[in-house]
Amino acid sequence: MVAASRDHILTIFKDFSTTLDDHNDRKERLVKIARDITVLSKRIIFLLHRIPIPGHNHGPNGVGERGISNIGGTDEAYVKLEGMKKLLQAMSEQLQGQEVERYSAMISPGLQEYIEALSFAHYLRHKVLISYNEVKSYLPPIIPLPYSDYLLGVSDLTGELLRWAISAIGVDGPSRQKATEVCTFVRTCSADIEALTPYVRGLSRKQGITTESLKKIEFGTSIARFAVSSWRS
């Protein structure tokens, strides 16, 4: 009786060990996939920053020095975003049949970086903020998209728009107007997201970064307007 009971307990602990090993291995695989998504998302962001700003000196057919046309740049970015679906599918396969919430900490960093790249491409093409449902449509159904990840991802967009706007400020004509439009867009996003900061961990810190980005864009556009008015007078 005692031996049978001991064997039963050992079997239970062996099952626990197998389950724990599987859980840890799955975590490692998800972390790797999330890192790959992060790396590719950053490359897409770099690609979008290389799109020539209207008004810069371009080569034939509006192609910049690095061979990316202003029209085709976002198209190329979207192709790369579509190509990332293989990684997203691999992530979904790891989550299949699992308690997805247990792995949210592993996948959140990659999702947020992906949302940042996607929202940047979306803004450059449509001049609006990508919606939650639009982001969700890019993900396999099993991959969760907490509102917190969406908000944290789009909050990072302001830093990229700061870089883009500063480049645009240095170009006379329509590009300078686009920098002003970015300023208005960032101001609106900041105001809309501010009310949600008490409910999302880490959002307050990112709102602080957004505020600093907004100040820099406002300062840059103000200096540009002053310089233009002084030159014309």
Automatic annotation (TrEMBL):
<dbReference type="InterPro" id="IPR002848">
    <property type="entry name" value="Translin_fam"/>
</dbReference>
<dbReference type="GO" id="GO:0043565">
    <property type="term" value="F:sequence-specific DNA binding"/>
</dbReference>
<keyword id="KW-0539">Nucleus</keyword>
<comment type="similarity">
    <text>Belongs to the translin family.</text>
</comment>
<protein>
    <recommendedName>
        <fullName>Translin</fullName>
    </recommendedName>
</protein>
<dbReference type="GO" id="GO:0005634">
    <property type="term" value="C:nucleus"/>
</dbReference>
<keyword id="KW-0963">Cytoplasm</keyword>
<dbReference type="Pfam" id="PF01997">
    <property type="entry name" value="Translin"/>
</dbReference>
<dbReference type="GO" id="GO:0005737">
    <property type="term" value="C:cytoplasm"/>
</dbReference>
<dbReference type="InterPro" id="IPR016068">
    <property type="entry name" value="Translin_N"/>
</dbReference>
<dbReference type="InterPro" id="IPR036081">
    <property type="entry name" value="Translin_sf"/>
</dbReference>
<dbReference type="InterPro" id="IPR016069">
    <property type="entry name" value="Translin_C"/>
</dbReference>
